[in-house]
Design a protein that fits this description.
Helix 7 packs antiparallel against helix 8 and helix 9 packs antiparallel against helix 10. The chain is mostly helical and 288 residues long. It is built from eleven helices and no strands. It has a single domain, classed as Glycerol uptake facilitator protein (Up-down Bundle). 49% of the residues are buried.
Amino acid sequence: MSPRPLAACCVAELIGTFLLVLFGCGSVHVAVLADGLVGLWQVAMVWGGIVMLAIYLVGGISGAHINPAITFGLATWGLFPRSRVLAYVVSQLAGAILAAATLYVLFGPFLAAKEAQKQVPRGTPGSIITAMCYGEYFPNPGGLAGGTEPLSASALTELNQLVSEPVACLAEVLGTAILALIVVAVTDTRQASNPSWFAPVLIGLTIAVLICMIAPLTQACFNPARDFGPRLFAYFAGWGEVALPGPRGLGFLTVYIISPIVGSVIGVGVYRLALMQPAPQEAEGINS
């Protein structure tokens, strides 16, 4: 089957990533600002659920990458045209930024109320507790947002000592590698045992499981567009250097952009080189 027109694929990637960030980051807004979705599993299931629905919606058009890391991983191993990579990534970033802007309009008063409650003016280091609704931080600062007492500088210092940048990079490489491995495995149409209609469910569950383990460390990114798009919006929305580059300097680049891409290339490569089986007709030719 010939690929769909690039323009249609770009629109599909924009819409798919928009929905991913709108509901995924929306669940973070609800958990941090409104004391809803209590417990990591509930937030994880929202992320997994919207990934599943986005794939069902646009998978037949663009393949539903909705993630630059997946796009780069597939293109690296010849499973996606390299000529389309830039257009896909730009569309994914655009969808993420639009979703972040939408969330800001919807939750603006909640953001201001949380900052007033915790006595952290936007743009100061303590405003990481609201900036985390957009960009991501290591370790996860969500625990500092609870309660009504003001946020102390010592609490931020103690938190940052829990996860080093190399550990955060390892977590993102590992998580994205597992995600990419599952994605290519369950969408491999060469294998007759793969029911294509069920693949989005398995991918969504993979996301949820990974978030439950890795979110306390890095907020579980696995997706450069999901982090950088909202982070860029937050920079211009008043968080400034708290959003970009953030309190850990170039950590946003190494942990949330480079590491997911490296992880995806590894995950796709493991399947491509070690696990991918020949199509039935190819296997017959080998054995004849």
